[in-house]
Amino acid sequence: MTVAICARRISHQIGATLVFSHLFFFCAPTNANLIDWLRLKGGIANGLEMAEFEGMGYGLRCSSRLETGAQALFVPSSVIFSGGNGNTIARAHGQIQPLSDADAIAFNLLLEQAKGPKSVWALYMSMLPPAVLTPKLFGQPALSALHEPQVARRAARAHDLAAATLVRVSPSLRRAVRAGCALASASDMNICIEAHTSMASWAWALSIVNSRALIFKGVRFLVPIADLVNHRTHIGAWMREVEHGNFFLKHHVLSTSGLHTSSDRNFAPGYQFFEDYGDNPTHIYVEHHGFVPEEENPFDCAPVKLPSLNHDGNGRANSRIDVLTAVGVHRMPSKCMPGELNRVRQDVRILIWALSINTTQLEACPATLSDGAASSQCEYAFPLPSLHERVIAPALLNEATGGLAAFKTTLKKDEMALVDPLLAHDLRLSICFRKSRKRVLMRLASEAAAAIICETSNNNPHDKNDDRVAHAPFVELKKTVMLGPLTKRVADFNAWTSSRNWPVLHVKAAILSSHGGRIGAVATKSLNQGEVYVDVPETDCLTTSAARREIGTAVRSLDDFHAILIFLVKCVVALIGSDGNVNTTNNQFGPYLALLPGIDEIVSLTLGITLGQDHHSAQSPPLLWANLPTKAATFARDRLEGSALVIALPAYVASTQRTYNAILQRINRRALGAAIRHSDVALSWPVFRWAAQILDSRSIWWNGQRHLVPMLDLVNAADAFEIPPGTSVHRTSTAVRDRKRFAITSAAWQFDQGEQVLENYGQPNHILYLYHGFALSANDHDCVRLDFKMTMAHDSDALDSETPESAAVKRRLLTFGFGALDYTTCVTSGSPHLGRLLEFISIKHGVSHKIHHSHSGAYLALLEEVDHRIYIYDLNTRGTVGHAKTLIYNELDHLRKLRSELTYLLGYNAFLPLGR
């Protein structure tokens, strides 16, 4: 199994010792013949075909829809490589000592490779990679770039162990390979034998086993076809605990007849078939599979340096060991820490507590704990919430910040290095890996700092001398934490929604890593398609009517959008009590507001705290990239070169700024000051811009008005492959009961309990990116935005004059129904808007918009525009990362398809030979 998200596939030339590869990579499998081979052997591949994917190598693609739990593959035991079969073959060729599963399967692989086309597995062998890029093959620069010497040491030990094993197995392996070469009628037996018994060939075979074999109850099996399935984290992974592979085993059942694989999610036709490899930290994927997952790994961890037991004397160390033993901790916990406090193992918490207790407690605890009850001499209370969090969180913060400080590079430098298209593959993988380590430590530091600040403000809000967050400035925190850690906010929000007694509530907020955010909505029960999952009273939403009722005269002169914007700001600043303490209970919507992105910065700004945070990150919504349209234009050119958003984005910022300036002139400041505390902050540009972005990205519409709807606006957008056929775009309906209006939303398709509930947003990527800050990799509603402006000669303002020529152009525009001198559309191949676009272009260029013999001017003009757009796309732009890259790649794909369609139409209709 190989998913090279950060490491691309490598060529036969990696490592001079791999010259043997040309001997047995004798043919390239087609999409069909390997699947046909499986079926010929009695296997099953339901709606799956083999395909090659950029950056991933071979994988499986869905040719028909697959539902969760449906059988995807069956591989009969007759074609599965196992340690048992490998040992049987090795013994038959004189191997006396039994081999490990990995060594036995490697032995078997090399024998089959030596057989060449005569091997039963010849087709399967032909698609195996010539090398698996893991740290064992890294050059010294890449090993150093990992910033983890232990990984290099493990790679060296593995190499030494493989070399020692080869010495032991070489006689029997040579006999087996000789027989295989003879069966293949090798032209030169010596070359054939050496090629399949060298250290390079042995290392290759082991790398195939280590990267592709499945493990069931500690036993390895190399399963052809099943090992083609690439990894992608399941959307429900953040909701499940570490289950030691149970999730993977639920969908992979090994029996005496073979391996049965079922789909762990829904798949639409045409999309790659993925599976979740299980509860593995990222270093497992790097060291064995040669990839770093693209998305954050819920089960990832990063090593920290926990204090030693004898940090204050060997005598006390013995006492601490007694305490740890008394509570069931019999060995040192793993030093690999997760990024979330709620995932930190209990034995780590207990160890930190045991390291912190004083002499009195050290003496009292063993006896107290043996009695099974805590006492005043031995404070002991686990699990969380724990009275020891005041000790545990600072210790974890200290270790996380220390781990970050130990890296030789910053996260920003890593991201800049990865932009280089000529970066060596092993270096790319190293940098991706250390980035994943940093992200874990950053999350851990952020949550630990949040817990400290929350606990400090709750227990001693007036203590200004607490130094437990002394290390916090060294952490690259994404936000401040005045409102508590994210886990607490989510819990408070769920408690709040439950307390509101909504008629229907079958979802809850949850921390996730998918679909553009850390928070989403998951089903609390199984949901059928069309079943109502949330029924929210309008009184629990932020609405225009509530804004005008609450603020009154101050917003009378404002339109609905800006009235609700001011109401949102009013609710946010209300979280700050008269004593300066921040509490979500200070406002009806407090628990909901605490989940809004950027809320901490707005609260901090209101309190006069300057965070000094940089929103210029490409991961932020575009409206927040820059204060000025000119600066936004610079960022847009860097990140979106070629896209129409290069112009549209700064125009969006400029439009928002113009509206803001107009609001300052129209709003009743005196009335606003009476209605809102901190009204000066409420009218500041940063606060206004943030609130505008919240409304643009989260509003839900009904009856022609926008609303902010708690819980419902947490429902994320689904990729096309997650949407079953026949489902509709998101729609919220309303009902009136007892003269109260309710917003009702039904499940667009079926969801299991605990699964993230998703919706079909029904918007193209340029809309999603401009207003929401994300783009979908698979979007059935996507198209490429094209902006055209009517100009004459070289003067863009020429049409504003009243010349006969400009008047004629304007009349023609009106004749075709165009009311402006510019035209924006979104098209792709086969788009129904293409005809309308050609009409505008025909007026712009003064040509016919219909193809008839030689009258193909509009088509040629549009083709020229499309070619120009394709040419100016800069896919190697330094700032183009993440969702921006998804947007750009998809737009480029649409343009290429549109070019093909236009070229075909021109060739078929306009350039037919006129003579017969």
UniProtKB/TrEMBL annotation:
Reading the lineage from the top rank, the first entry is: Eukaryota
Q: Which GO terms describe its molecular function?
A: protein-lysine N-methyltransferase activity
Protein name listed in UniProt:
SET domain-containing protein
Q: Which organism is it from?
A: Pelagomonas calceolata
